[in-house]
Write a structure and sequence with these properties.
2 copies of one chain form a homodimer. Chain A has 438 residues and is of the alpha/beta class. The first copy, chain A, is 34% helix and 26% strand. Chain A has helices at residues 15-26, 28-35, 67-71, 87-97, 107-123, 140-147, 162-174, 178-187, 196-199, 202-216, 235-243, 307-324, 365-375, 406-415, and strands spanning 6-11, 39-45, 62-63, 77-80, 102-104, 128-129, 153-159, 226-227, 246-257, 262-273, 285-292, 296-303, 350-360, 380-388, 391-405, 427-432. Strand 12 (296-303) of chain A pairs antiparallel with strand 12 (296-303) of chain B.
């Protein structure tokens, strides 16, 4: 047995990098006992080697130049945690070219350069691991890639942005507005000063592209996917959702349509039944439901971000890399294996809907809406209304609609714009049907 | 790249064996594309080669003698799905000795011969995989062993017997008795004609031993673990549980007590908060919550049994075995790495409790019980009572008790036996506190 300790080069000592370094030190004996593989962190690249750090680290390990990691023939594995897509791209490219397996959690990097980097990984028989890029501590990447490998993935439904979920959770539980919930999340450190990418759905979308890549075998580009954020969700929608037995979550939906061999991929706040496990995912937790043709429904739940949960994911990959790096012909990294599937046009995607109109409380308004929906052959399964405090002449009018294509619903809603008693821009949510018979 | 197809020997063509064979054929192209490893099923050992089978299989693949699989130098990997602990033991032992990696789902085999087989596996540098032995399609074994490898496991809490969960689910949802729920489960094929091992908790206990082995590094023997089944759970307890915001689930609890370096390991129907995800696991589904020092709380959910979900787990292992079998020095199989931890005596395990007494409705009975509890320094957090139809003189009296050691509760309950107005054998449930701050 080869007992030379595997040497790790760590690039980046920010929040996650610090968590990784600390855990590799603190739980060193456990890791070595479990894997049987001796290892050491040989070198740590940082931007500024003189900066004061929270973590105790021998300064002789530090370097200000990541090239030293790649060029050191003794370093076996590179962990990329410097973030961004500029230096990180150069580092990962250089490492793969030098046949050093790379572990990264950089979803922006994968979104921008995934196709190129995975091609490079395949050409060099050098794996690129990315468990930490999606779902924080949830081992969804290894599960999709290894444990569930025999499954055609029918559907993935996920709550994969902790900030949005934290905000929606406080709106639901405390009845506060989106603005107040956001401010509160910022105060508590669960939302950044600029929360745009979290609340507009694009962080979730980038992670969804990674999940879709694993499920369907090739990197996808973010063009043309439908992404809606949570900023238009209102407390009144939570009120109606609860009455109707639903909760509202920012959901990622990925579904393969066999008949058209196309992929449905969208991100939007949606109604889900309170009976479904995903509706009970609160706060910064994430959860991903994977429906496979062989395994049926599975769900994976855990902390979606944070120093230590993300470090757990990174180190899970490092241990894989250690096992893989001595037999490059059979590595457990991802390699593309299919052509890219076309995306199903958004207008063709079919679900039931919840639509809330703000209307003048005049006779005939329900008839007007019902007639317009009927014109487009859209069935109504229920209606509810609620008067509004301080607005005696107005009310909220909710319609639950049977499943129909999104495009057809949009045309019906367009037809209602002409009616002055109906305020423009009704609140529209998809109702996701997720339950598999227990 | 070595392109010789890896040859698989499959022993057993019962329900799961058939699922594995069918999936290896049906999803062959997908598996090969994803893993890059060509494979073929070379030989299938069955008890009776002439029996009619549901599955289409070339009869030239069949043999009545599993020795042929082990002795065939071309066969790289053995899948053991013959069940039982007699022939299966001989087969696995022979295969490991012949340096052929083994994939099994046989928890009875691991419970009985785990120590010996894992030692043999280590001595021969030949891995033994067992994802299918616990949690059906849920990839809990690979997750504990690989993805979460850097975590000291603080606690595992699981619903890992589908039959019991199906029965408890119908009792909760339909208000029926244990007997009726069991008969119904038998009618639907979710409980066997002899359901003993499922409903008495021992099936869950055997799986718990496997989880504990992975979490704490060594096979454990089933002696002295506390196992209670579901046959004494009554509809009235579901009534009170619901009133109090709980559900009742057959829970496996594994917890490491650092202060005593001892392991708490028990199986019993327990109260869990309706806020916790595990309380929403219904029917034959399983779920396992793992709390790690680095990752925090994670939950894994899916079908706990059945032909295809179990086949998914087996094939996940087969693919690992394929990757491992050409570099025996770093395989992903389990090897024991610690001495066995002592079990915490049951009497020292501490939780809050729900206790339901059946009493004569006379003045002073609450005072009597409260006084006896006070004598043992056991605090009361709530009491509730409910009259009983047709029994005007009697009622159910429920006490929620603060956390205290089990032994102390037992002594208090013993002290109440002398009182004729209190029926013997009150219903006692632990209240498991599982929530991690979301």
């Amino acid at each position: 047995m080869n007992q030379r300790a595997l040497q790790i080069g760590l690039a980046g000592l920010g929040t996650v990098g610090t968590g990784v370094y600390e855990t590799l030190c603190r739980n060193h004996d456990l890791l070595q006992a479990r894997t049987g593989i001796p290892y050491a962190v040989k070198r740590v690249a940082v931007r500024d080697i003189h900066r004061h750090r929270e973590v105790l680290i021998d300064s002789s390990l530090l370097t200000g130049d990541w090239h030293e990691l790649v060029e050191d023939p003794e370093i076996d594995i590179i962990i990329e945690l410097i973030g961004g897509t500029d230096e990180a791209y150069k580092l990962v490219k250089a490492a793969l070219t030098a046949h050093k397996p790379v572990v990264t959690g950089n979803k922006a990097l994968l979104a921008e350069y995934g196709s190129e980097l995975f091609r490079l990984s395949a050409e060099n028989s050098t794996p690129l691991y990315f468990e930490a890029s999606c779902g924080g501590g949830i081992p969804i990447i290894q599960c999709l890639q290894n444990s569930l490998v025999c499954n055609h993935v029918r559907r993935i439904t996920g709550i994969i942005n902790g900030t949005s979920n934290y905000i929606l959770s406080s709106m639901e539980r405390k009845g506060v507005s989106y603005r107040d919930a956001l401010s509160n999340a910022q105060l508590k450190g669960y939302a950044e000063a600029d929360p745009t990418l979290d609340v507009n759905g694009w962080d979730a979308a980038h992670k969804a592209l990674i999940l879709a890549m694993l499920a369907y075998g090739t990197p996808l580009s973010p063009e043309n996917i439908a992404v809606y954020g949570i900023d238009r969700v209102s407390p009144v929608d939570f009120h109606f959702a609860r009455e109707l037995g639903y909760n509202i979550k920012l959901l990622v939906v990925i579904r393969h349509h066999e008949d058209r061999d196309a992929l449905e991929l969208r991100v939007q706040p949606s109604f889900i039944s309170r009976q479904h496990m995903l509706s009970n995912v609160y706060g910064v937790f994430n959860a991903i439901a994977v429906h496979g043709d062989i395994v049926g429904e599975t769900i994976f739940y855990g902390r979606g971000a944070g120093k230590n949960p993300t470090a757990s994911a990174v180190i899970g990959d490092v241990m894989l890399a250690m096992r893989d790096c001595r037999h490059p012909e059979f590595h457990s990294g991802f390699h593309p294996y299919t052509k890219q599937l076309p995306l199903l046009p958004l207008e063709d995607t079919v679900t039931p809907y919840y639509v809330r109109f703000h209307v003048s409380d005049t006779p005939g308004v329900i008839a007007t809406i019902a007639a317009e929906l009927a014109k487009f052959d859209i069935g109504i399964s229920a209606t509810m209304s609620r008067g509004l405090e301080g607005e005696e002449e107005a009310c909220d009018l909710v319609f639950l609609l049977h499943a129909c294509p999104w495009g057809r619903l949009c045309r019906a809603l367009d037809g209602l714009k002409a009616h002055r008693e109906i305020a423009p821009h009704p609140a529209v949510f998809r109702i996701e049907k997720l339950n598999e018979e227990a």
